């Protein structure tokens, strides 16, 4: 099959942009530019936005339908596509269709994942041949969570989230609650009450059960619905915050136990029943579709 034939078939397809969970998150310091130094563990979950790329002749980049509440020029999908063009001088255009399933401001990394899928898939469709390292570097200029979605594997992350080490962790079931509020990441990181001096730990400490999220205290105090969700979820299993929230989640050893908690919580909350995966669904699809 020629590159052109591969591109022709892939243009019409829907590409996943999965969510992530931060299975733990420690803030160990702060850089001089204000960004916080973290230790975190990312795992993907099988809950995805879906993105389709349509070729256009006029060289422009646009969204078929802007995401409500996000001006098109600010959308991370548009910014990612424009960044690729600026970096490579590519003159091709694209109209991008998004099926948005991930709640915004939920700590599930939806905007970052959309940006990463755009970088990875357009790099292939446009035949740009940028390396994964280069795409991660470009992605980091869009957001701290973009590199892990480009990398595509569960990771132990340090720095601001860009120093990644692949880890394989059990692929368990999760119940995720989206409280009815939108947490602003920047506001949480600006809080004077945030813990910023946690001691660094090792991967083995995480495996042994060290699941602390240093944003939890600040977020729980500011957002009553996050606090309530944590209380309800902890009746079933250890309840944790992902990123800066608002979503909270709990891990289950069996699908049956997860389904039972899901059914019960569904009566009161917006809730998702999802499986954790170590390989990003984007990469599973790229491998099966033969473009990389
Ligand atoms: C909290 C996490 O979700 C953990 O995965 C991420 O670190 C946040 O990643 P993100 O949403 O892509 O965040 P960005 O868009 O890069 O940053 C939003 C704002 O949060 C603050 N920020 C973010 C990440 C970080 N390590 N330190 C920070 O202080 C910065 O003020 C920044 O202006
Ligand atoms: N394609 C996009 N999808 C969602 N949000 C976007 C997108 N492009 C830009 N944004 C902006 O990013 C903000 C954060 O959205 P996102 O869904 O990434 O939050 P999040 O899950 O809390 O992210 P994180 O876990 O990385 O902090 C939104 O409120 C919106 O203004």
UniProtKB/TrEMBL annotation:
Keywords tagged on the record: ATP-binding, Isoprene biosynthesis, Kinase, Nucleotide-binding, Transferase
Enzyme's top EC category: transferase
Any GO MF annotation of the entry: 4-(cytidine 5'-diphospho)-2-C-methyl-D-erythritol kinase activity
The keyword Disulfide bond is annotated on this UniProt entry: no
Binding residues for ATP: 103-113
Listed InterPro entries: GHMP_kinase_C_dom (IPR013750), GHMP_kinase_C_sf (IPR036554), GHMP_kinase_N_dom (IPR006204), IspE (IPR004424), Ribosomal_Su5_D2-typ_SF (IPR020568), Ribsml_uS5_D2-typ_fold_subgr (IPR014721)
Highest rank taxon of the organism: Bacteria
One Pfam family matching this protein: GHMP_kinases_N
Residue span(s) of domain GHMP kinase N-terminal: 76-152
One biological process term in Gene Ontology: isopentenyl diphosphate biosynthetic process, methylerythritol 4-phosphate pathway
Active-site feature positions: 20, 145
Homology family: Belongs to the GHMP kinase family. IspE subfamily.
Matching NCBIfam families: ispE
The name this protein goes by in its record: 4-diphosphocytidyl-2-C-methyl-D-erythritol kinase
Protein source organism: Methylobacter tundripaludum (strain ATCC BAA-1195 / DSM 17260 / SV96)
